[in-house]
Amino acid sequence: MLLVRGAVSSVDVMFESRFQSFDVQSDRAQSKPRLAALRAELKRQNLDGFIIPRADEHQNEYVPKCAERLAWLTGFSGSAGLAIVLADKAALFVDGRYALQARKEADTALYTILDITRTPPSSWLAEHVREGRRIGYDAWVHTSNQAGTYKEKLAAKGAELVAVEGNPIDRIWLDRPAPPHGAIALYPERLAGESAAQKLARIREKLAGADALLVSDPHAVAWAFNIRGSDVPHTPLPLGYALIPREGKPRLYLDGAKLSDNVRARLSERAEIEEPAQLEAALSASARGKKIQFDAATAPARLVEIVRANGGTPEVGPDPIALMKARKNARELAGVRAAHVRDGVALAHFLAWFDRQAPNGKLSEIDAASALEAFRQESGKLRDISFPTISAFGAHAASPHYRVTRASNATITRGLFLIDSGAQYEDGTTDVTRTIAVGRPTREMRDRFTRVLKGHIAISRLVFPAGTSGAQIDALARQYLWAAGLDFDHGTGHGVGVYLSVHEGPQRISKMGHVALEPGMILSNEPGYYKAGEYGIRIENLLVVAPRSIEGAEREMLGFDVLTLAPIDLDLVEPKLMRPQETAWLDAYHKDVRASLLPLLPADVRRWLTKATRRLAQPTRVRGRTGTAGKR
Question: What's the chain's average pLDDT?
Fold first, then answer.
């Protein structure tokens, strides 16, 4: 890899991605024999069908290669989806993000491609199954709620859902990768801001009458015990479970091969260390007469059923750790702010470089994604990217979750370029999107961009009473698009972890975000607009919920502090559409970007950033005299 600090003035600089592969391989050619092999295996097991989710034993967003069963069987490589295979038909269910991708990667002669939001898999299965049929599922990769839905729909048709012993796909996937063995590391308390003992004490207070909590979400395990791992891409997760009793020492179920002697010794002070294979037996032996609390979103149906079958009472509901983890403490927020300054430096280098190189018409989407990663690596502190970079030019940007491959890689010419990217640093996780005009944008592009920006600013400036949820404020990001008969089809924002998942709950800004926003929660603010076949626009900063002091206020009030430090393309802003307070916000934001980044940049990038963050405020007539709109 070539890393050049002075890349803003260089030509034809080449970069190579370390953390992202652009060689997405689809096994479509193998779909037919693999589907035939699965049907033969199902027949051998006296099953009439099988359900294949894109999931591992923890319902992770990113899964180890050995859990990519859906991709292996169907050729579809998206991060969300599910297939159902019957003796005479099969269906692949995806959401709108992946409709086009699924049709390209999966063999439509073998699989009917369906929108999962319009046709729930359980409903499709109930429609096509006949009385007396036995449909198999792997209870390790379904939650109890998911399994319950299938059971109910099948029972109404006189059919049965059958938990299999051993996933049938694993029996026919002869070269299936081995499970991951990423090393587990201790996460320093100076960054965590709280000891594992303190966290465990708080967790026990939330057990709500249960005798123990089975922690199935690896993010929660990592947070509670102050550890990190490397078992899945882009998120530093140690795959495993924990059992936290109301009294006594917790148990950690982790692969011992991942633990150095030092880490094992330190962790043993906090918990008993056991192998994951021992978890089933431990639950079976201790379940009788006990109430065990499970996370509805991640706990495998298998473990819930073990407790029930052995005389225990499983209580399936929200994971109490999720809300604790979402409320970042002062140390965590200090680390996150430092990470964003570091990330801002890399973004300034990248944007300055891009501004010089893109007009030459030689850059590709892969070039841009690789270059941004390279600038981030120059800090020496980049651990990973936080998700595969969305580097999208023109029509590609109209797909909100487009992922560039060598086959789709487009050259960046005149038009709009969108880059959505993030970094994993030990002290914080970042996620930022910028839309950039290459050449002169059209009037429509400027109009749409400014409407998106106005919605972005509305969220950023908002002051709201404690107890307000993301669902209550989501419309504010859309109001200026709605006024023009426009909208976008994704949420306005998601929660973000601290050196954990870039997509973290339970907080979010969306129509479905019903959890109250609390101080310390980090969220993205990313409204957008997408014109199919032409271009896409998205502006994303990360925000942290913070107290607001208002003289005479009768209620506790909150607002957002902006974490992200990167210029917003002023060439795409239509000043006539901006209100004075919106212009003032944008000028103040760019002033903060300059104050934070200019001292850390070389002269050429400083010059570029100073121009890129110039004041938008224009002279205007105010009360019969010339003033400056938005002057602070």
Answer: 93
Q: How far apart are alpha carbons 370 and 353 in whole angstroms?
A: 12
Structure tokens at 412: 């960046």
Q: How many helical (H) and strand (E) elements, i.e. helices and strands, does the chain have?
A: 20, 30
Question: CB count, 10 Å around CB of 132?
Answer: 10
Among candidate residues 464, 527, 522, the one with its CA nearest the CA of residue 498: 522
Provide mean pLDDT across the span 292-303. Answer: 98
Model pLDDT, residue 13: 53
Provide the residue type at 238 as one letter. Answer: P
**Helix 121-128 with 144-156: angle, nearest 10 deg:** 30
pLDDT tens figures, 428-449: 999 999 999 999 999 999 999 9
What would you report as the CA-atom Rg of the chain, rounded to the nearest whole angstrom? 26
> Hunting for tokens 């003033």 — which residue is that?
627
CA-to-CA distance for 451 and 517, rounded, in angstroms?
25
d(CA 475, CA 88): 45
The closest alpha carbon to 364, from 398, 401, 422, 405, belongs to 405
CA dist 434 and 539 (Å) reads: 5
CA distance 250 to 557: 38
CA distance 464 to 559: 6
Give 289's DSSP letter.
T
Residues in CB range of 440: below 8 A, 6 or more apart: 414
Q: Tokens 């890393």, residue?
A: 3
Q: How far apart are CA 19 and CA 467, in angstroms?
A: 39
Question: Could you give the angle at the alpha carbon of 488 between the alpha carbons of 483 and 491, nearest 5°?
Answer: 120
Nearest by Cα to 267 from 281, 278, 277, 256: 256
Specify the pLDDT at position 488: 95
**Which residue, among 541, 504, 597, 539, has the nearest Cα to 419 in the 3D structure?**
539
- Which of 525, 523, 545, 541 has the alpha carbon at shortest distance from 466? 545
- pTM to 2 decimals? 0.93
| Residue 160 tokens, joined | 């049965």
Distances (CA, A) of 196 to 80, 87, 127, 147, 330: 33, 50, 49, 34, 16
Q: What is the pLDDT of residues 381-391, one digit of tens each?
A: 999 999 999 99
Contact residues for 152 (Cβ-Cβ < 8 A; gap 6+): 122
Distance CA 522, CA 432 (A): 13
For 132-145, what is the mean pLDDT? Answer: 98
Residue 621 — very low, low, confident or very high, per pLDDT cuts 50/70/90? very low
Percent of the chain whose pLDDT exceeds 90: 90
- Among 293, 284, 288, 222, smallest CA distance to 258 is for 222
Q: Say if CB 497 and CB 335 are below 8 A apart.
A: no
Listed in sequence order, the DSSP H helices in 279-329 are 279-286, 301-309, 320-326
Residue 471's nearest CA partner among 513, 527, 525 is 513
- Measured distance CA(450)–CA(446) in Å, rounded: 6
The CA-based dihedral angle spanning residues 34, 39, 42, 43, taken in that order and rounded to the nearest 10 degrees = -140
Asked if 439 contacts 359 with a C-beta cutoff of 8 angstroms, the reply is: yes
Could you give the 3-state DSSP secondary structure of residue 163? strand
Q: What pLDDT, in 10s, does the model give residues 207-251?
A: 979 999 999 999 999 999 999 999 999 999 999 999 999 999 999
Query: C-alpha angle with apex 239: 151 to 147, nearest 5 degrees?
Result: 5
> What average pLDDT does range 469-473 have in this prediction?
98
Domains and CATH numbers, the chain: 31-172 (3.40.350.10), 185-322 (3.40.350.10), 330-613 (3.90.230.10)
